[in-house]
Write a structure and sequence with these properties.
This protein is about 75% helix and about 5% strand. By secondary structure, the protein is mainly alpha-helical. The protein has a two-stranded antiparallel ribbon. A hairpin with a 2-residue loop joins β1 and β2. α5 packs antiparallel against α7, α11 runs antiparallel to α12 and α21 crosses α22. The longest helix has 30 residues.
Length: about 575
Amino acid sequence: MHIISICFIRFIFLFIVRIRLFFFSLKFLFNELVYFIEWEIIRLNSSIIIITFLFDWIRLIFMSFVLLISSLVIFYRREYIIGDLFINRFIFLVLLFVFSMIIIIIRPNLISILLGWDGLGLVSYVLVIYYQNVKSYNAGIITALSNRIGDVALLIAIAWILNYGRWNFIFYLEAIKIDKEILIIGSLVMLAAITKRAQIPFSAWLPAAIAAPTPVSALVHSSTLVTAGVYLLIRFNCLLVDSFIGKYLLLIGGLTIFMAGLGANFEFDLKKIIALSTLSQLGLIMRILAIGFLKLAFFHLLTHALFKALLFICAGAIIHNIKNSQDIRFIGNLISQIPFTSSCLNVANLALCGLPFLAGFYSKDLILEIVEISYLNIISFFLYFFSTGLTVCYSFRLVYYSLTGDLNSNALHPLNDNGWIISKSISVLLFIAIIGGSLLSWLIFPYPDIICIPLILKLLVLNICVLGGIVGYIISNVGIYFKNKALNNYFFAVFRGSMWFMPLVSSLGLIFYPLNTGVLVFKRFDHGWREFFGGQQLYKTLVYFSKLNQTIQNNNLKIYLMVFILWIIILTILIIF
């Protein structure tokens, strides 16, 4: 009871702070306010330590969403693993995770951003290995090593931006924009963002990170870890527009959403399907950001956070009910077993698809219509709409597996919706996922522009969604036929279902070969020839000359001269005779 009361107090505190931040963000949005605060901590001679904070409506509303989802995760955790002996440790880790994200949000200083960035990486590793099994350890190491590449890129960007005098990048963005160094700094920031965001070729760690507890996945995939890279690019957005970096980001974002959408249609792990949908949706955000629509990218980031958190929490409730099985082939007919949870799961799925008047509709429909009137090549245009069809396809496949058929798990599973804590968490997110899209669209775009396009283009989004839903239903309904076809083309089925072999490449490229090379270098050089001819040989040589010098200093020089003369006489006699 003591632990539960502590959890409840933390939930109430975070929720109240979230509400206050949301109303502050509305004040900043309506009045167009920006507060830049400098706090001088200490001054010693000419050395000054200053902490800077930057508050605007984007930062405040994003912090309110982070605190909302984290408070619901803490509240949800009370029942999800009620017998966990280390629940306080988990809550402190979640709070540290949220604190690291807030540092990234409100600090315009690259050093402080690096502190929050590394804090996210460290705490995410600890949370991924929380269950302490082999799968968790492997997922944790690939997550940590993949993100270290971005950390190094951010370190180099910090060193380079010091050329402008300070690390407060907010002062120098316009100067960097017209400078030739934009390519270097922008490329480093983009590399840091795509590693944290798990874009190609660093996509393998995101589906592996589902080894973390489901409440953590709801927080990570909605508003913290994977959105940190997107948020960094939002702040450096002026470096992307009309540059080579933006075009490259447009390409890898398109490949990522295509690969993730295709892989989700061949996946049977419930959490991994939702993780791949995160990969797809935030790839979509990065693509619209590369075109130059900052507010629209941020809008979809917020709406995505709402329905993605709801998806993960509902998935966690289902997994919890069927005794920790994540295979969607074991679930079925959930509408008659747990009607409330399954209904909320499918509402979140429909919001993900962009069903009219749910949260995802207002942002996704606007993004696709902006794409239709933008100057894009046919490949980018195709990847946008085909990936949207794939999203609807795997979403309807998940709807089919959860609502229809028979429950394929054990007959005595106690499926029920009696968990009032889980139900309350789901209810809050359900309400926000339904009205959040329209509310945010009214706030962020109070004077919407009318997009006038031909009727065939206007209906293209709807037609793609309907076609994707039909294909998803057909694939699920005649699964035996498609399974046999997949077995006939086993290589291609494995290729599509394993993210184009990216986990294997990442495991070999980031873990096996570097660590194996390190072992060989350690054995053959540090403990081999380099040690024999290097450190040890130098040590022996110095010892020899030290002893020789000591011997010379401790004896009379006359003795050595006499010995030397004696040896010369002996050699002369030997030569003569």
